[in-house]
Each structure stands twice: as C-alpha cells, then as structure tokens.
Amino acid sequence: MALRRGLGIVLTMVLCVMLGACSTGKALRVEVPAAGSPPSAPATKQRTVTTEEAESWEKPFAPAQIRSLLLNTDLSSLRADGADPTEIHEYLSTCARCVIALPSHEAAGERFQVYSVSTAGDSYSFASFVVRNDAGTPRIVLAVGGSDIYLISGSDGSLVAQESIYEPQDPMCCPSGWSVRLFRYQDGRFIEGDTFESPVDYAETEGEK
C-alpha cells in the first residue's frame, strides 16, 4: 500500500510539473514529500504530520458528521465510472471509521475540508469529497470516485484528483498507471478540467531505490 501511494504521489508531481500549459498558464504545485527528498525517489518518506495538523483537518466538521452527511446525501452525481453510490452508502452504514480527513484546501480565501471514504483494512480510497462550511452546516461541493483516489491541493485554488488505473490482471499493489484530473475553483464551485494518464514502469522505479 505504501509503495502504491508513494508511486502515485511521485507521478502526480511529475505530471503537475508538465502541465504548465493549463488554463491558468501555471503548473500545479503539490507539496507532499518531505523537504529534500529527491524527485525520483518513491514518496514513502513523507513529511511527518503533527497531531495538531491532523486535528485541524477534522474541524469544524468531524468525520462522524461527514459520515452522517454522506449517508443522507444523494451521491448519484459522483464524477467517476465504477463508483456506485449505493455501494458507498452500504459501506458507510456498516463502517463507522472509514471516513478519513485529508489536508484541507484553500481557494479564493475560503477553506474547505477534504475527506475520503476508505476501506478499513488497507486504507484503499474509493471516493473523496470536498466540504464547505455553509453558515455552520457542512455542504458537499465536490464528489469524486474511483480506484484508490485522493484529492491533493494544487495552485490557484485548484485540486488534483489522483487515481490508480487497474487492468484486469493487475494485483492491488501494482496498478498499470495513474490518472490525474484537474479541478479549478471558479464562481463558487469546482469545475472539472483536463485529465492526464501515465503508465508505471516498476522496473525503472525499483532501479532508482
């Protein structure tokens, strides 16, 4: 699991650097690995998250509140093939600790909370949500689903949705590639932009260790 997520973060960073010709004319900035980590190294050595940081991600709305919100929300507009809203509801109804807080996101001077719905066993994320504080009430403003999908802050109020691409023969540890979807914050909402895909060369990655 650590290798899978580490490779994904590295590839996300590479793709973001290459996307200098996006709509704003600026490359996305993803600040996940620890300072000083070489760009070619798997990003398993990430910056240590403090307890205070982790707790801040769960404010003002705690995971239990987001779980309740999701259970009472129509998720039929989830932006991904293969993400069944009914299955998400069924999973949440039996798993009380499967809503995980991610680093919060800021856009246009507004702070948003980011949460993922992950399996209890291996933290495999199959849906991520952006939540706005609407006068003290949580409101979902972006919902994305997919295979091992995570939302990471980019520049200029943008979000990067990183997702694994699995072929039928792929084991869970080793997807064939990665997909990156860009979301721009405009006029009070997140608008989906371009999608980019990249294969994974595991032989090359092993050689760089």
How would you sum up this structure in a few lines?
The protein has five helices and eight strands.
Could you walk me through the main structural features you see in this protein, from its secondary elements to its overall organization?
The protein is α+β, with helices and mostly antiparallel strands and 209 residues long. Helix content is 23%, strand content 33%.
Number of DSSP-assigned strands: 8
The DSSP helix count reads 5
Q: Which sequence of strands runs across the widest sheet?
A: 1-2-3-4
SS-based structural class?
A: alpha+beta
Mean of residue pLDDT values: 75
- Beta-strand fraction estimate: 25-35%
Residue share in helix: 10-25%
Report, as a whole number of angstroms, the end-to-end distance: 17 Å
- Quaternary assembly: single chain
Radius of gyration: 17 Å
| Largest sheet, strands/sense/barrel | 4 strands, antiparallel
User: Which residues sit in consecutive blocks of at least 5 with pLDDT less than 50?
Assistant: 1-45
Shape: globular
What order do the SSEs take from the amino end to the carboxyl end, as H and E?
Answer: HHHHEEEEEEEEH
Features:
209 residues, alpha+beta, four-stranded antiparallel β-sheet, 33% strand, globular, disordered N terminus
Blueprint (SSEs and pairs):
Blueprint: H1 2-18, H2 51-57, H3 63-71, H4 85-94, E1 99-107, E2 110-118, E3 125-134, E4 137-145, E5 150-153, E6 159-165, E7 177-186, E8 189-199, H5 202-207
Antiparallel strand pairs: 1-2, 2-3, 3-4, 5-6, 6-7, 7-8
